[in-house]
Amino acid sequence: MIFSGKSFNFELGKKTYVMGILNVTGDSFFDGGLYNSPEKAVEHSKKMLEYGADIIDIGAHSTRPGHNVLTPQEELEIIKQYLPLLADETNAVISVDTFYPLVAEYAILNGASIINDVSGEFNPQMAKLVKEYNCGWIIMHTGGGDASTVVDYPDGVTKDVSEFFNEMLNSCEAYGINKNQLAFDMGIGFGKSYEDNLELIKNIKDIKICDVALLTALSSKRVVAAATESTKEDLLFGTIAANSLAIQGGTDIVRVHNVRENVLAAKMCDEVLRRKNG
Prior knowledge:
Radius of gyration: 17 Å
Helix content: 40-55%
Number of helices: 10
């Protein structure tokens, strides 16, 4: 069982992999504007790698509620300022957080190995890039909503997400994409109510597809703030607790802002859940 592609190979079940978030947009909900120069972004990335990040996920397009929508060209111009230097200055496995094929192709040709696609759909243009360049593809469930909307799931959110993952797997394999190139994301906070988000974290074992990587991305999101009644300064604690539950449920990758603390928490979970006797 692996998640693999251009320049990376992650054995599933061996450990929890940590994806460090690198936001280079000024309006990110958590750290907008902190890394708004290539030099600051690279410095932060090196620190995340030092702390144990396995992947650096660079995003130029905020998806927070009420975010500014960028055109493909606008997003590309931002990525062009950061990605080449990040690739040159580090040996990181780089993921680009985008739903634009134009941006994805540039990124793959300039140091990225994974497309982190939050569109919530099977995009044939994106699928063509994944197949042609043998890169990883993270596909997120949205239910047709976004971070500002809540979608109604008549048969329950767990069933909807499970069916979506299976549909995406079938579509990808029919297109000729190996399932080893895929990772699925439940889309915590996208088209989901507070109760939906909690249900998904609780039911990961019922959602995860065997032999396909599962990514959980809930770092400091509204569900954590609501559940813990915390402000930004204290969201780390709820994030670690929720990620620990996700790891116990079988998630393979956690996407986080605070890499050092989440790496340590994941190591503890892995010792209990994944350690081989003898």
